[in-house]
Specification:
The complex is a heterodimer. By secondary structure, chain A is of the alpha/beta class. Chain A has helices at residues 22-27, 68-74, 110-122, 142-148, 167-177, 189-201, 235-238, 249-256, and strands at residues 2-11, 14-20, 33-37, 45-53, 58-64, 81-82, 84-89, 100-106, 126-133, 151-156, 163-164, 182-186, 206-209, 225-228, 231-234, 241-243. Chain A starts with a strand and ends with a helix. Chain B is built from 22 helices and 15 strands. Classes of the chains: A alpha/beta, B alpha/beta. Chains A and B meet through helix 1, helix 2, strand 7, strand 14 and helix 8 of A and strand 5 and helix 17 of B. Bound molecules: flavin-adenine dinucleotide, iron/sulfur cluster (SF4) and FE2/S2 (inorganic) cluster.
């Protein structure tokens, strides 16, 4: 049982929860995720850790209300308890001074992108962030991203904020003019697929953080498997980050629909 | 030297057995019925739920013997001078002693006899492959060519009787010695280890990655074979002995090896199991509807996906194929029937004789309408436009020469292939050791298969303060072996912590 310390709405459908989890707060690194279960009949669902405060002993999760399970989490309030929370899971992001790093985050993917942006900046990289969302109110955590980036481009589908257009257009703008050493992308699978196709054109090495269906999150079931370079990998233990140019996104998109 | 010790131990053991056997009550009982008469009683039949009913619900299939049936079956045991059954038992339960206690109606004493050697008799009575262990070595099987004494049924009976009588004996616990011990994993190895160390006065804490305790006993083996309640009672017993449990805690991730040391844990027992599912790496294996046995059983057992109120979904195919011939495969295929499959088929590349599953599970599966397609092996799956599996291509096989394990090797009959329609495939072709501990701990020696290397007598690893047992040491093995490892490790660790040396 983990207590929710505070709750904040980042937009109508996106909630930020600060949760009491001292051990995880201490051991987690950028890129790690947790598995959350709400209620005795609840499902085990992965969420990336957006930030952590080891002194306070809390971690922060940013959750978009999309289905039954995320709704259950979003309905919890400060003072309520999460039934089960386990982590940190997955491999941490490999952080070093690559030179220039392009971070492309879409929708709630911006939340897990943030700790990577921070860590990349701290390691001495020049960080260019492209944030994309359907409309203005879905562009979350912009301020924190700006604080840690040398340059920020905001794209919205409907043009209600920043430039009108898809994330790939923002990414391409950067790639056309600048030498980028690494691209990191987190967001909906379709978005990552197209970011990956774009960076491939420019031969820029790219990492995608995959969000497949999971059950245990510890390598025990294989529900999370994806094909990377023709080999089957388990996202929860071998990932969640993989060389995007090797990921079979079409298969991943298909598998995400398994229970729809 | 080692050999001398071993034979000395054997002598000591048989001396002990003989003095027990010489007790007046045993002698009297032996005289009460002539052996000839004993061998003429037929073996008891386990009362079972009817196949038509059980193949649609989750009630335990074996109902259990009545007191009368158990006492009747116990009469068949000849209380042999050299009880060969014990040599077949991995933890050397004093089998005639417990059975003779049943014969004279002292069921609680029988239960206590079991507990002298086994930490989980109610579990082992249900899931041990008795036909390959104690019962295969029974005088009846070996010499009389008759059906063995139903040792497994009797074991289960005595353990259940004790539980239901609410007279469970909580073992005596030594005065606390203040030494903290950490256990990684709450499967049978970890539970057995924890119990023995608590008895010896240690402060034991078990860390479990999942949100429920029991390891495979919880997430793997279905309720129709091992009701959750049985596992709960065992865990409650350990709690009463002072063992502490922490779920949702992954050693190596949530807490590191160094953290444990800094927190004052003097030694660690690793019982982290072989939880990683193997796949066959054939085309189409990532189609929707193809999944590992672990995924399928975890959804149903741990996440209760069959319950309409559960948020966890599970695929409910009409034509389900389960690839493999072990206990795991039988559990999956029988679960598929219970989830409504019209056709549930075992696809196995050898013949039925080579199947590693318990004979009783194969029998139960057949009674429940499961089909067996032996000497077939899948080589490809194909799906529809949505990526859902629709059919599989099977290769016909035949048995060739015996391989290293002594089993005849399956070889492909070239060119002999056939397509079979399916809408769900469950891959149950073995598991690999859980890599979490081997990859995050330093100081361990790990084999190329990912198992932890230990001294087989003491279960001590290359790091003298880390012991390990169960599937993480053996690869996929059995509950009884895991439990035995846990007990052996406890004994050796206790010695080591007291004297600084083991064995
Ligand atoms: C479906 C199925 C049916 C079976 N049927 C039979 C049968 O009929 N008879 C039989 O004898 N055997 C059977 N087996 C095999 C038997 O269950 C195993 O051999 C036995 O459970 C192994 O015990 P263990 O304690 O080594 O590990 P497990 O039971 O696998 O338990 C290991 C536990 O450790 C936890 N863990 C792993 N890593 C960590 C970590 N880093 N930190 C914290 N926790 C961790 C895991 O979550 C798990 O709960 C079956 C297995 C399966 C899967
Ligand atoms: S070998 Fe069979 S008959 Fe003899 S003591 Fe063991 S169970 Fe009884
Ligand atoms: S979620 Fe089960 S193996 Fe990755």
């Amino acid at each position: 049982m983990n207590k929710i310390v505070s709750k904040e709405f980042l937009s109508d459908n996106v909630v930020k929860l600060e949760v009491d989890a001292p051990l995880i707060a201490k051991s987690r690194k950028a890129g790690h995720f947790v598995i959350v279960r709400v209620g005795k009949k609840g499902e085990r669902v992965p969420y990336t850790i957006a930030s952590a405060d080891p002194k306070k002993g809390t971690i922060t999760l940013v959750i978009q209300r999309v289905g039954k399970s995320s709704r259950k989490v979003c309905e919890l309030n400060a003072g309520d308890y999460i039934t089960d929370l386990v982590g940190p899971l997955g491999k941490a992001t490999h952080i070093e001074n690559f030179g220039t790093v392009l971070c492309a985050g879409g929708g709630v993917g911006i939340a897990p992108m943030l700790p990577i942006i921070e860590a990349m900046k701290k390691a001495g990289n020049r960080v260019i962030s492209v944030l994309a969302a359907r409309s203005k109110d879905l562009v979350i955590l912009e301020e924190q991203v700006r604080e840690n980036s040398d340059e920020v481009i905001v794209m919205t589908d409907d043009g209600s904020y920043g430039q009108k257009g898809l994330v790939t257009e923002g990414v391409e703008q950067v790639l056309r003019h600048k030498k980028v050493d690494l691209c990191v992308t987190i967001g909906p699978a379709v978005m990552m697929k197209f970011v990956s196709l774009t960076t491939k054109k420019y031969a820029v090495p790219t990492l995608a953080s995959l969000n497949t269906i999971m059950v245990d999150g510890t390598g025990m079931c294989g529900a999370c498997r994806v094909s990377v370079g023709g080999k089957t990998k388990f996202v929860c233990v071998d990932g969640p980050e993989f060389d995007a140019h090797q990921v079979d996104f079409d298969e991943m998109l298909m598998r995400l629909k398994a229970y729809n | 030297m080692a050999m001398n010790l071993l034979s000395e131990n054997l002598n000591l053991m048989s001396e002990h057995l003989q003095s027990e056997r010489a007790q007046p009550w045993r002698e009297e009982l032996r005289k009460s019925i002539k052996n000839k008469e004993r061998t003429e009683f037929p073996r008891v039949k386990m009362p079972e739920l009817k196949p038509e009913i059980r193949s649609r619900n989750y009630g335990e299939v074996n109902i259990g013997l009545s007191l009368e049936q158990a006492m009747g079956e116990a009469r068949r045991c000849l209380d042999c001078v050299s009880p060969s059954c014990i040599t077949g038992c991995p933890v050397e339960i004093n089998i005639p002693k417990f059975i003779k206690n049943i014969e004279r109606g002292e069921i609680l004493k029988a239960a206590r006899t079991l507990k002298e050697a086994s930490a989980l008799p109610a579990v082992c009575g249900r899931v041990c492959p008795q036909e390959r262990q104690c019962e295969s070595q029974c005088f009846y099987t070996q010499k009389l060519k008759k059906e063995a004494v139903a040792i497994g049924y009797l074991e289960r009976f005595a353990a259940d009787f004790e539980r239901e009588s609410e007279n469970i004996s909580i073992p005596e616990v030594a005065a606390p010695n203040g030494t903290k011990i950490a256990v990684v994993g709450s499967g049978p190895a970890g539970l057995a280890f924890a119990g023995d160390m608590a008895k010896a006065g240690y402060e034991v804490r078990v860390f479990e990655a999942l949100h429920e305790l029991g390891g495979v006993l919880r997430y793997g083996i279905p309720e129709f074979r091992l009701p959750n309640e049985i596992v709960d009672v065992e865990i409650e017993g350990l709690k009463k002995m002072g063992v502490k449990f922490e779920t949702n805690c992954i050693i190596g991730k949530t807490i590191s090896q160094e953290d444990l040391r800094a927190d004052g844990y003097r030694a660690i027992f690793v019982g982290s199991g072989a939880g990683l599912p193997n796949f066959m790496n054939i085309p189409g294996e990532n189609l929707i509807g193809v999944m590992s046995c672990n995924e399928y059983l975890t959804r149903v057992n741990l996440m209760q996906a069959a319950d309409d109120e559960s948020d966890t979904p599970v695929y409910k195919g009409r034509r389900v194929a389960v690839i493999g011939g072990g206990n795991t495969a039988m559990d999956a295929v029988r679960t598929a029937r219970r989830l409504g499959a019209d056709e549930a088929t075992i696809v196995y590349r050898r013949s039925e004789e080579e199947m590693p599953a318990r004979i009783e599970e194969v029998k139960h599966a057949k009674e429940e309408g499961v089909k067996f397609l032996t000497l077939h092996n899948p080589i490809r799956y194909e799906g529809n436009e949505k990526g859902q599996v629709q059919r599989m291509l099977l290769q016909r096989m035949r048995l060739g020469e015996p391989d290293a394990s002594g089993r005849r090797k399956p070889v492909a009959v070239e060119g002999d292939e056939l397509w079979v329609d399916v809408d769900e495939v469950i891959v149950s072709v073995g598991v690999s050791p859980n890599p979490l501990i081997p990859s995050s701990f330093s100081g361990l020696e790990v084999t190329k298969w990912g198992t932890i290397v230990v001294n087989p007598n003491t279960m001590q690893s290359a790091d003298t303060h880390i012991f390990a047992g169960g599937d993480i040491v053996r690869g996929g093995a059995t509950v009884i072996l895991a439990m035995g490892d846990g007990r052996r490790a406890a004994k050796a660790m206790n010695e080591f912590l007291k004297s600084g040396t083991v064995g």
